[in-house]
What we know:
The protein is built from seven helices and no strands. The radius of gyration is 33 Å and the shape is rod-shaped. The chain is an all-alpha fold.
Amino acid sequence: MTHDLVAALGPLLTAEASAEAYACGSDAGDLEQTVWLRLLERLETHGPPRAPEDWLRRAVRAESRRTRRTARRERPYGTEPADHTTPTPEQRVLATAHRRAVREAVARLPGRCPRLLEALLSPKDLTYREIAGELGISQGSLGPERSRCLGCLRRLLTPEVASREARG
């Protein structure tokens, strides 16, 4: 029954939607799709309309009027509403995963490297003098030690980064 109704009303709906779309500022395909949805909703609740062609014409005009009313109330933004400086949820998840991977790799480093890099990454923004005092090493050896630890960290992270890139 539904298939026959759809086949019979298809050309009429296409013609009616094309005729009304320009006046309401909508796409004919969008209008057509909305009327099909209204027909399916009606079939579920009230069954098929007695005069399907008349119902279809009224439905197209009603949807066209609704679209025009909506368009009158909607106002475009003066500027682009999206803030491109704020990270998207996906970007935040990826950044969190990246930080977690770095922290896990730092924890696997040998010797004083984990403590040194944690001090360097500290939100307290410690000076070299404070870091050297905290670790009990001379301030002059802090630079070479940091360089050695960052090299180790780079070697630890390289296989993880390379394996991620190879998948795509």
